[in-house]
Amino acid sequence: MTDPTDPRTTVVVITHNRRPELLRTLDRLAELPERPRVIVTDNGSTDGTAAVTRHHPEALLLRPGRNLGAIGRNLAMRHVRTPYVAFCDDDSWWAPGSLTGAADLLDRHAGLGTVTARIVVEPDGTEDPIVTELRGSPLTGPAWLPGPALGSFLAAATVLRADAFRAAGGFHPRLWLGGEEELLAADLAADGWWLTYADHLTIHHHASVVRDPTRRRTHGIRNTLWFTWLRRPAGRALRRTLHLARTVPRDTASLRAFAQAAAALPWVLRERRVLPPNVESRLRLLESAQRHSTARRYVG
Predict the structure, then answer these.
(1) DSSP string of 192-219?
(2) Which residue in 90, 109, 190, 196 has a CA-CA distance of 20 to 30 Å to 164?
(3) Angstrom distance (rounded) from CA 44 to CA 77
């Protein structure tokens, strides 16, 4: 009988004050046939989150003592020894066999950096609207690519090549949380890695009600602006900025996002590094295709 366990992938979870959701996620991950190692970064929770390790002593719990946002994943990566890492949030979990399926793709294709799975929304079991975009990506990849080429990825639904993640610098500490994947995805592409969507892999997402959507949207708009200014050619960056100014909701959250982004211009100019033309051309194609998207977005 074939052993279903699979030592190739570590699962990294970030959490903040969502003890019940985290416990459910750890329960589901413990049931996976792959039996992956699990690392949890507790981003400064005050609700007794650390106590879940009594139920799951096999999980490594990291407690930085403050809310690092997405950088909690970078902290966890210091403890990853496997070739691949699967991210998921405290309100999501991988389906049985999907980690093995992603690792098989990464084993088979040396130029593949990330594999993003199909997202199923619970409790209804319906597909997340963004799956349609992933499945129908307009990008053209090399003939060997096992699925649609992507311009970015969703951290909570993606398995990455660990060494590629580290070489690209991981998630940027300035971005914290909210659309933080875009900058890393572009840098992975600039390093020569391809990103793909795999329809036969699944992650389940049962969105937590414990969230601050206004804060997340502010950070999402701000981070999009920072990415645009950090990596896009000057003319394109200006046009993208004007487009965002016209299309984001005219409210306090958007105003705060633009103010936060503008306040960091000295840092942006110091770190600015324009993407290679081939990566920039992919971004332009994606922007055109997504202009009328109905899937959830942080920005307009």
Answers:
(1) T-EEEEEEEEEEEE---S---HHHHHHH
(2) 90
(3) 18
